[in-house]
Design goal:
Helices cover 48% and strands 10% of the residues. The chain is built from six helices and five strands; from the N terminus they run αββαβαβαααβ.
Amino acid sequence: MKTHFTKKEQVVILIVISIIVLVVGFKFLSKQIMTKNNKNDKDNELIIKTDNLEKEMETDNDIDRQEEQYEKDIKEDIIVHISGQVENPGIVELKSGERLMDAVELLGGLTGEADEDRINLAKKLQDEEKIYIPKIGEELEIEILDAVETSNSVDKDTEKGRDKIDINICTKEELNSLPGIGDVLSDRILEYREDNIFKTIEDIMNVSGVGDKKFEGLKDLIIIK
């Protein structure tokens, strides 16, 4: 029985063993690399999905913020009409909560004949208001909305003797005959009335633009039958 290898055989055996070790090592290393690459791919895919989700959330938040800001801007913008003793009577755009003095300033200020004692420059304005600035000594023939705090020229006896308007059945012309009610506000009242019934005269304050002060000027002129 042969117990010794020749030198040549030993060299061949070493070469074969080396090849086997290299092959096994290469396979093991390849497997490790593939496992690592798969893990990296999954990690990258997760990162991409996370980034996309964050971008979508940021986009949604941006849209929400834009919509909120747009609604806020719409609510804050008001337009009023200032006439009488101001340097440049006309329409002026303001922010909600601004006062008569702000509108007057934008229109160049009061004239020298303006009767400041009969107006409230600190009054907060509402959308679609018309404010009349009287002249010193001027006697007003009509009640000028809420800007003129005294209405001594209104014929109270005539008001008491006139027929009250039923706001559930009245026409637009009848609404327009009421103090402080113009075309825009009368249209709002009619639109509100299409889906709602005024159960009390106070319900008219549910219509946008009819506040407490305006209701004070209307309550003796309207009824519910």
